[in-house]
Write a structure and sequence with these properties.
Blueprint lengths: L2 H40 L6 E3 L7 E7 L4 E8 L6 E7 L10 H4 L3 H4 L6 E5 L14 E2 L5 E2 L3 H17 L1 E11 L1 H12 L4 E7 L8 H13 L5 H4 L7 H5 L14 E5 L10 H5 L5 H27 L5 E4 L7 H19 L2
Parallel strand pairs: 4-5, 4-8, 8-9, 9-10, 10-11
Antiparallel strand pairs: 1-2, 2-3, 3-5, 6-7
Length: about 350
């Protein structure tokens, strides 16, 4: 082979290598900035936090609440960049005190991994409806809990998130399931300066209705709490019941984007595999899930009728089957995601 041919071959290889390198660097030029921004903003621990073992940049933070006189645990996943909107996720009546199933069961941090949103997921709030109670909550465990969740979620936590995670106070969404769904709606329409979108999964809306308020009180008693300490006696439309009743506050919802979902209480392999595959010992819990979702469906349909008659236009999603369970709510959260992002400009 002549020297010219050899040189030509090496030249071709060099050119090919240069093209490959240029291509790689070109891809890095477009891909690296966002990843670098995410690492820069998400990759360091904030005060009072430790890394959550879930990963996905989730931090397990202890935020002091002066209103409640204690530290509140909050899972926080920072946005990609500073000055990001926030998404608050509220649990149900049986909320755990150690971690939130939004993280470990519904996989919210993974769902919103590439979205410039700060996820704020408070831990606890069992039977609280995430509201400010009239009196301290006393339960059958002998605990006294000074529930002031509305104050924490609308005054104290936003300050902490703004100071340490650079989260905006005026461009947030709130979502909740079951008990947390009722609370999310109330927080959204009572704090329009903070929340620009609300999502409700398997919620209950007519909380001042004597039948519904009595059912809520019964659920709180079942969890070991004295219900009159929240808004007063059930069956009576007290100011607290009325203020937190979405069906009584439709005038506060004009222009508020809403995503509302519920199922019908029918179990299936698609939406509720645990209901069909569970052990016989789980049948009472499965039966409760069927009943609770059926009640939510009735409440949701009634609220949609009330809202549309008032001129509101909520986005509704009625699952063809599903019971009151996390397998359903994980899917509902995924369906709500594009609506949340659109409302917040993400």
């Amino acid at each position: 082979m002549s020297f010219t041919a050899i040189a030509r071959g090496w030249k071709a290889k060099v050119v090919a290598a240069m093209v490959a390198v240029a291509t790689i660097f070109g891809m890095m030029q477009f891909a690296a900035p966002e990843e670098a921004q995410a690492n820069a903003h998400r990759g360091w621990l904030r005060p009072g936090c430790e890394w959550d073992t879930y990963n996905y940049w989730v931090q397990y933070c202890r935020v002091y609440s002066h209103a409640m006189g204690k530290h509140i645990t909050v899972h926080v996943r920072p946005g990609i960049r500073p000055n990001s909107p926030g998404l608050y996720l509220l649990d149900g009546l049986r909320a755990r005190d150690d971690w939130s199933e939004y993280v470990w069961t519904a996989n919210a941090p993974r769902l919103f991994e590439h979205d410039n949103l700060t996820l704020a997921i408070p831990v606890g709030g069992e039977a609280s409806f995430y509201t400010d109670w009239n009196r301290p909550a006393v339960n059958t465990k002998g605990e006294i809990r000074n529930y002031k969740w509305e104050t924490f979620l609308t005054q104290e936590l936003p300050v902490y998130l703004g100071q340490h995670f650079q989260t905006r106070r005026d461009n947030n969404a709130v979502a909740g399931l079951s008990m947390g769904g009722s609370a999310a709606m109330s927080l959204a329409y009572n704090h329009r300066d903070q929340f620009k979108q609300v999502s409700v999964f398997s919620g209950y809306f007519q909380v001042s209705n004597p039948v519904m308020s009595t059912a809520i009180a019964g659920a709180q008693i079942d969890q070991g709490y004295e219900p009159t300490a929240m808004w007063g006696p059930p069956g009576v439309p007290t100011p607290g019941h009325v203020r937190n009743d979405p069906s009584m506050n439709l005038h506060k919802m004009r222009g508020l984007p809403m995503f509302i979902a519920s199922a019908n209480g029918y179990p299936s392999h698609w939406s509720s595999p645990e209901a069909l595959l569970g052990a016989p010992s789980e049948l009472p819990q499965i039966g409760m899930g069927i009943a609770l979702e059926g009640l939510s469906r009735a409440s949701t349909v009634a609220f949609e009728g009330e809202a549309r008659a008032f001129g509101l236009n909520p986005t509704m999603h009625y699952s063809p089957d599903g019971i009151h369970a996390w397998s359903l709510w994980e899917q509902d959260l995924a369906k709500a995601r594009p609506h949340i992002k659109k409302a917040l400009g993400v």
